[in-house]
Amino acid sequence: MSEPAAPALRGHLEVRQAVVDRVARLAALEVDGVLTGETGLLDLRHLPAVRTRVDGRRTTIAIDVAVAWGIPLAQVAAEVRGHVRERVRTLAGTEVAAVDVTIEHVVRPQDAQARRRVR
């Protein structure tokens, strides 16, 4: 058997910002209460909106979300923050320095119902 290559000879991995954006967006959607799509008069397809800054192996993330009415906002923000941090760290292999969460919209149940009636 041959010896493994020295770390300097193995190459490196570069994770593009667009990949980190996508991982963070999908991770936010995995959190209960985070919404996307069209609900009544609101078009939330652009949410969650993610802005990342990748600096080597450190990433800073800002994410805007829409949340279903009736769920404690601080709880959802904390869950988004933790889940996005963990998924980006695990899947993209970057250390997450910070995740800032902004709740852009709170969607009432009747807004979601209005969308279903139109169909």
Q: Distance N terminus to C terminus?
A: 64 Å
Rounded to the nearest angstrom, the radius of gyration is 18 Å
Instruction: Tell me how many strands there are.
Output: 6
Helix/strand-derived category reads alpha+beta
Poorly predicted ranges? 113-119
CATH topology name = Alpha-Beta Plaits
Q: Identify the CATH homologous superfamily.
A: Cation efflux protein, cytoplasmic domain
> What does the largest sheet look like?
4 strands, mixed
CATH class: Alpha Beta
Total domain units: 1
Strand content: 25-35%
Could you tell me the mean pLDDT? 84
Q: What is the annotated CATH architecture?
A: 2-Layer Sandwich
Note the overall shape. elongated
Q: Helix and strand string, N-terminal first? A: HEEEEEHEH
Descriptive labels:
119 residues, Alpha-Beta Plaits, alpha+beta, disordered C terminus, single chain, two-stranded antiparallel ribbon, four-stranded mixed sheet, 36% helix
